[in-house]
Amino acid sequence: MTIKFWLNGKQIEDIIPDDILLLDYVRTKGCYSVKRGCETANCGLCTVLVEGKPVLSCSTLAARVNGKHVTTLEGLQKEAEEFGAFLADQGAEQCGFCNPGFIMNVLAMMKELNDPTEEEIREYLAGNLCRCSGFVGQERAIQAYLAKKKEEVSE
Amino acid sequence: MFHAKNYVLAQNLEEAWQLNQKKTNKILGGMAWMKMGKQNYQTVIDLSALHLDQIEENEDAFSIGCMVSLHDLETNQQLNEYFQGALKECVRHIVGVQFRNCATVGGSIYGRFGFSDVLTCFMALDAKVELYKGGIVSISDFASMPYDNDILVRIILPKKGKRISYQSMRNTATDFPVLAVALSFDEQEGWLISVGARPGKAVVLCWQEGTSSELSEVQIDNMTAYVLENISFGSNMRAKKEYRQHLCKVLIKRAVKEILK
Ligand SMILES: Cc1cc2nc3c(=O)[nH]c(=O)nc-3n(C[C@H](O)[C@H](O)[C@H](O)COP(=O)(O)OP(=O)(O)OC[C@H]3O[C@@H](n4cnc5c(N)ncnc54)[C@H](O)[C@@H]3O)c2cc1C
Ligand code: FES
Ligand code: FES
Predict the structure, then answer these.
(1) Hey, where are the domains in chain A?
(2) So what's the architecture of A76-154 in CATH?
(3) Packing angle, helices B217-230 and B241-260, rounded to 10
(4) N or C: lower Cβ tally within 10 Å for chain A?
(5) Do B97 and A41 touch (CB under 8 A)?
């Protein structure tokens, strides 16, 4: 079947197998940040934005993004690098495998929630699993990042 | 993951229904559950173009299209104001936001899963299920109907001024519930007590004593005793039957206290 959609701002028209998953498809387009971490829709590593909303690309048919805007980490380089530096400052990551999905969901959270509480942050990120850490470093990084963003707004 | 030869974006419900009459074809909800299987389908049928992703409100009821995502259910202000945050509470533990942006209300209710938080909550709200050919049926009747090839179009939540509380217990965050309880009260119908993840699918009972502003400890004990007598519980890898029975008492008490507040 044919789909026409936007991947990281670039319009693409393509012929795809009817049942290809968005995860596998965006990887054929060079978006290697999008990875499969589980077979059970639980890890969040495959998170991409469809029309700005975070979804699991391992549980979405590529056919369903016809006419829509899809964003992967590759399309959010600047924001990802900025937040990634906060993660690094806190020594929050070990192997880093969970990072792309985690960063995508943090960026989605920033858009959806205004001044989230600690509990809201934890709840929003509950679907991103990290096998190496206890999430404490990530939480510190998010708090520091949010504080910086607040400062920028009030300046 | 399943395989499908064809993907069809249905242009109307009749087309979707016709396609769904073939055993090897399948309606797609959010596909979060379907993708866990390895079936080979001839055609998967997408209802995304039918504007069924809307939550609408009129004087008598809320109408929730089958393609509304669980995250929309969680964040819809009118719905959560009217039902005191119960819908948010019933879905907020399900995996994560990205998952809840995929999984739909239609797929959750059509599936009639034993562990379903959504089914448990809707039962205490006396929801109705609108089927394309089967018309409007109560959710408890729907829960015991055999799986067929009809299409679940929307869920109707009547506005009866119910007070409601949703309670669940999980062994670990984001896992299936060990037990789920939804309790509601309105002047006409009295109490509705819905218990899910028993681990069988949710069932609902009525209870007529007391009111939402007054229920004595003895009446609460009578209510829990009635529930334990009339609802069966079982064991699985998450918990034993006896633990679920104990939890049921605790969750009912918590729900009553929240409603009495
Ligand atoms: C890892 C995981 C964890 C979960 N944890 C929980 C939990 O803790 N609590 C909870 O309540 N639920 C949980 N669920 C279930 C989940 O919330 C959804 O209920 C489930 O994914 C089904 O919704 P869906 O939209 O993905 O449906 P799909 O997977 O697309 O479909 C499920 C079934 O419904 C049929 N169907 C879909 N829509 C319609 C329709 N409109 N008309 C007729 N048939 C239809 C499909 O053909 C299919 O048979 C979990 C699921 C997974 C995969
Ligand atoms: S790959 Fe694990 S949730 Fe998608
Ligand atoms: S740092 Fe290794 S999985 Fe998160």
Answers:
(1) 2-74, 76-154
(2) Orthogonal Bundle (1.10)
(3) 140
(4) C
(5) no
Chain A touched by B46 (CB under 8 Å): yes
Taking CB atoms and an 8 Å limit, are B96 and A58 in contact across chains? no
Mean pLDDT of A109-113: 96
The percentage of chain B sitting over the pLDDT mark of 90, rounded to a whole number, equals: 95
pLDDT band, residue B232 (cuts 50/70/90): very high
The dihedral region occupied by A8, where left means phi > 0, alpha psi between -120 and 50, and beta the remainder, is left
Query: Between A and B, how many CB-CB pairs are < 8 A?
Result: 80
Residues contacting residue A152 through CB under 8 Å, at least 6 positions apart: none
Q: Which fold has domain B52-158?
A: 3.30.465
Beta carbons of A59 and B44 less than 8 Å apart: no
Q: Out of 1.10.10.10, 3.10.20.30, 3.30.1440.10, 3.40.50.150, which CATH number does the structure's domain A2-74 have?
A: 3.10.20.30
Report the gap between the CA of A155 and the closest CA in chain B (Å): 31
Q: Is the CB of B226 under 6 A from ligand 1?
A: no
- A47-75 pLDDT, tens digit per residue, is 999 999 999 999 999 999 999 999 999 99
Structure tokens, A39:
């077979």
- CATH classification code of B163-260: 3.30.390.50
Atom of ligand 1 nearest to the CA of B120: 11
Chain B contact set for A19 (CB, 8 A) = 2-5, 7, 44
Supply the pLDDT for residue B213.
Answer: 75
Q: CA separation (Å) from B62 to B65, B80, B117?
A: 10, 11, 19
B43 to chain A, closest Cα gap in Å: 9
Q: A41 vs B173: CB contact, 8 Å cut-off?
A: no
B31 touches chain A (CB under 8 A): yes
